[in-house]
Design goal:
The protein is an alpha/beta fold and 451 residues long. The chain has helices at residues 14-22, 91-95, 109-119, 130-136, 158-177, 196-203, 230-240, 268-281, 294-298, 330-352, 354-357; strands at residues 43-44, 53-54, 60-61, 73-78, 81-83, 86-88, 100-103, 122-126, 142-149, 182-187, 209-213, 247-252, 285-289, 366-371, 380-387, 390-397, 403-409, 413-420, 425-428, 431-436, 441-448. It contains 11 helices and 21 strands. Helix 7 (230-240) packs parallel to helix 8.
Amino acid sequence: MSFLKSPPSLIVSLGFVALLLSGCSGPGATLDDASWQMSRDTIQAPYRGGVPHTDAQGRPRVAFDPDHSFLPIGIYHGLSGRYGGIDYSFAPLAAAGFNTVVAWGDVPTNVVLEAAEQHGLQVIISLPRDDEVLLARDHAQVLGFDIDHEPSVAEPLSEVLARLERFEARRADIRAIDPNRVVFTVDYPSAPAARLDGWETWRRAGDVTSFWNYPIAGDQSPSIGGPFGVGETISQAVGAVDAHKPIWFVAQAFEGPVFRFDWRMPDPAQARAMAYAAMIHGATGLIWFSYDSFVTRNGAVIGISPTPRPDYDLVLDHALTVDEPLRASARQIEASRELWGAVTTFNAEFAAQRELWLSPTAALDYQVEHRGARTSQAPVRTQLKQTREGLYLVAVNVDGDPVDFRVEFETPVTGILRVAGDEAIQIRDGMITGTLPGFGSFVLKLTLTDR
């Protein structure tokens, strides 16, 4: 979902979206909380051969290099300039720890590049014209170009492949001007069976595969997992590209009735769980949607900001809504400000973990068990990472209910160092044990007896 130079077409089956958001909750998913359970989805191992990623100018990499490997931590829609009597700048984005910005498409490219250089941000340019590609070519702040949006849900079905042909032609035009930057699209999160082939074909189409998944909606959101959960769709994309392309995940940081669906602002725990679930399943970059401004409000969305307003006194002539721009209530303003503060903390956390996420999955067997789950059959998701500094275990609870867990290796664990998370974790009988609160997560550095 994006608000660009002109509103992209987005044809959504709300029945499918409802399924996507429903997870696997319900009586049929209830587990016996008196016994330990295992699930094949608990242990994730997407990148045994190295993690596909890029440098800051979009050039592909697999092996981590501390001087060149880049982990995008971005946000839509950056603004620089004066609009509706309000001065906007990339300064708050840089101060919040973002390293990447997708600028609103109506901001002139030269202004975007100057602002990005001033504040040390990389830029993704959406729907660029040839003159904009030429202006961006060889500019150190440009990460890549984003063209087309949500193509896998195009109607009629034949249009999905027709748009792919146009995408490939446009990508060739861009590469003729700038052969080094990545060219990709941001797509729908998944597809029903009749459209799955097209969705997977689009995952392979760009130099990067990118899509959104916004699971927080309605009065209750008991889980971010399920058939079309955050982690599940990332894993599906990893499989579609055979683990050979970077995956930049667009995460929910907004609420609003856009396209008649009742999306709600995630709370900090839900947002953190979304980010960790995406990365554990194989994402190699995060882009939050979206920075609150007149742009989002004209799209019936309230985003996140350190200084959100009830409204921004500007009506766009190409807004996605036919009514007045969305106004924020006092509750919504507070939720926007709260999540901005939380995302600022996440940004620092993930920046510090750059090497971890861009290092391979460790080739070491282990077993994870859980008990007490009431929503999902696989509430705990983990990945074991091998970096130059040692062995790390990352875990997240994709459900809102707490769950007990224990992790066992072939040789006993003798030491743990908490890198992130504040959960109660201990070593017992050589195993890592504890309780993950609802939407909780952690990163541990491990010491094993034979390592």
